[in-house]
User: What shape does this take?
Amino acid sequence: MQSLSFKEAEVSAPDLTPHEAARWADRHGLPLPAHRHAPVAATARHIHSVVAVLRELDLGDVPPTAGHRAHLTEEERLDAAV
Amino acid sequence: MRPYEMTLAAAAGAIRRRELSPVELVDSVLDRIERIQPRLTAYATVTAERARRAARDAERAITEGRPHGPLHGVPMGLKDLIDVAGIPTTASSRVRAGHRAQTDSAVAARLSEAGAVLVGKTHTHEFAYGLTTPQTRNAWDAGRVAGGSSGGSAVAVAAGAATFALGTDTGGSIRVPAALNGIVGLKPTYGLVPRRGVTSLAWSLDHVGPLARTVEDTALVLDALVGPGGGGPAGPDSPSAPPEELTGLRVGVPRTYYFDRVAPQVEAAVRRAIGRLADLGARLVDVDIPMTRYVQAVQWGLMVPEATAYHEHTLRTVPDLYGADVRILLEAGALMSAGDYLRAQRARTLMRREWAVLFEKADVIAAPSVPVTAVKAGQETVTWADGTEEGVADAYVRLSAPANITGVPALSLPVGRDRAGMPIGMQLLARPLAEALLLRVGRAYERTQPAPEVASAS
Assistant: This one.
């Protein structure tokens, strides 16, 4: 678990480099061609700068909104596909 | 008045009285589509033959005395994320080339059952992932953006090229184009209108809802979508019931967030409209919007990874078929961690709790729909009086996102024009499942105003 936490911090770091972006995208199953490394890293840095503010919140034992339902909804049974 | 200019309520009344036939109405709207489409590009697909056939069927049903409701024989556009059996759902994307929907989405089936006639599928910002719908132009000024992502639906309705339409709203995608084109748009309570058969942008933020030229029309469409006994605002509290006076209603006027970095002409028009609500008997109460610092972070923290997850397969197999602006967001979304996503979900729980407290102080909250009217096509940023610069998309999402995050219903309705003649929208928000209340307040305001005009598509 220690290493997972460390790596999450690494990928979220504001100084994410094009090389790191490529490596992490590949690790998530999305190999990026070389010309995509720099723009994807820049966009990921921007997204991170927006969402990082949530780290200020003391979330205590607040659960995520997405809740468990015992019964499948209509959407869960059948949804549109790409 | 030509049939394409009629509101849904007026057209339904004329059809019921047999002063207007569905064939005349549908032909008039199809002619109008031919006129506006080259300039405004509201539609991805026009289904003229199918529409004429459906109109003849609707006319026959009326002649034979079979019972019909207000949508019977009325022409509609559906955002091209909404499946209709036998027709492509293009999502305005090359990724969907060759697509053909096998079955009707739940909403298409319900509207078809109500007798509405599909005249075409309207353009969306590609896969709903953007706020301008660049292929479509604003109904009031073709040099300005339509807004998005339901830009085609809003422009079609504003220009008389559909009597009503459906859109989807993940971060304002119904309310933003409705506001920018001077029409009404409703984002219902999360989960009220079924999303089966509608292409997702982000599951936990997506909503399907109506766009129309009046609040009254919007209520009629919602009635058909939710259905009697559908768990929504049906029955004696139906949203299409006559509006009551607003005496005693508490209208919350935000002291924070919703009037920050808003164009002065937008603020003035919305405050005038709030004044009209007070004239109608509402009691204005100051409210403070909770957790505003975290709105954009929660919106992005949920939307970005969910969108990337939805497109996971095609992003690997056909990335070059996406537009540049959408592709980069989908790719960058792959770099967000599960920790970031969970933090956004947990912050959303806090925000929903805080908003529930907010609605103990006010029955309805009134605010601008968007901070600025339709910008010129190609404009990328807005500069505010305090010297700060904001991306156009960020500005258009900013006042919409709280209702997507919390799931509360939100109605956008036109409340004036700026000096350039561009429409200004006011947003009304209420507690979950209070659509009937929202529509009653919107209708009460609407009755104090002149009847809406169809855009001349100049």
